[in-house]
Amino acid sequence: MPETEVRAEVGSLQEVLAALSDPVRLEMVRRMHAAGAPAACAVLYDDVSKSTASHHFKILREAGVTQRSVIGGQTHQELRLEDVEAVYPGVLSSILAAPR
């Protein structure tokens, strides 16, 4: 059973949009959405260092867009689509549906 951190509140609309404004973070979120379940961190990014990826994961988590869990000793990230949509209906789903 995964260990999940206590869920943070979904941030303000400005925080959510700022978190999604970076192309690397947006791609991470798209990959989480495609996975549909907690995904190992390493499969969520390319072409950035592990420390840079950690920074991006932190920004997404602090904005309330994602949550982190540990499964089998490995850290995974999960998109909080339903939580964000409950606070800001249509915002995240529209961003995810937009062409790349």
UniProtKB/TrEMBL annotation:
Residues 5-99 form the HTH arsR-type domain. Gene3D superfamilies: Winged helix-like DNA-binding domain superfamily/Winged helix DNA-binding domain. InterPro entries: HTH_ArsR_DNA-bd_dom (IPR001845), WH-like_DNA-bd_sf (IPR036388), WH_DNA-bd_sf (IPR036390). It holds the Pfam family HTH_20. It comes from Nocardioides mangrovi. This is ArsR family transcriptional regulator.
